[in-house]
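Appendix B. Raw example, untouched.
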Amino acid sequence: MKPGANTLREIYHQPRAWDVCLQYLDTLDVHALAGDQIPEEVAWIFVGCGTSYYLAQAAASSFTLLNARRAYAVPASEVTIFPPLVFPNKPSQIFPVLISRSGHTSEILQVAAWLNARGIDFLAITCDGNELETTTPRVIKLPIVEESTVMTSSFTSMLLALQYVAAWFADEREFLTSLKKLPHLLEDLLEKYGPQVERFAQDRFDNFTFLGQGPFYAIACESALKVMESSTSYAQYFHTLEFRHGPKSIVSDRTLIGALISEAGYLDEVLVLEEMKALGGRTLAIANDASSQLRSAADLLIELSLPVPELARLVVYVVWGQLLGSYLGLAKGLDPDNPRNLSRIVTLPA
């Protein structure tokens, strides 16, 4: 099998994975799983490690925006090491959501044990199940099988699922309908932009920075991680407008700045990208609709043109960092299916 074949296949097969996921979600009894934990009455706290932590951030943003109630995201290690910072309120006022593709991640299982010891109910979301699904009766186990080491379709599918739950609580039926349009729309985008990302990855870059605001910040974090994991490259992430405040000192003709452009911050974010291009940086922009100003500022532009609400586009923004990381790794002679120093599941010594 060619290097990276598994990872690329799973990236390009995400439309099918999303279809399967959405069909499953339509059979899910959300009320039975979490209906007594209403976001208006309790604080939802999303917990993950690595990619799952960035997924937690995106899910928390989705819950906050859809339900107009603040939700939070924390790394699993914070729960067990600094619990007063994570749970300052009474247990009855919080509802944790534990995220793990494998259901076997040591730190997530430690959090599950910590919560169970204190009688705190929680929801688990996973693909493989394993030990995690035995720790709580509240489980979303998605029918997603992923062989690759780095998370791709599992990330986007679990994010779809958590957005689905958020929209269910908010009674946002139009949003739920929008999610179901995404698989077909992504198929067309992959056909158009996949080859462009592959060609772009042949260029030589010394470092990478991904920028995003609001819910897109979590996707910028995940995009940077995918580049690090799949290509052993140095990548960072910042809120878009924060990049001006010191970090722009790294910009050179060997720096790639990837910008995830939002609607709310469109003009300001495009100005940042223009400034970085003027400093000599190479630029990648992902936006739903591109102005002539953005077209001039981007060396590679991925224009989505998705007829769905902005928040429903999050999973589509994720895909391009996945592809870029894989193609960069291949261009360096690496195998994204077997990234250096990484394993599919992180387990700690007992």
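End of appendix B.
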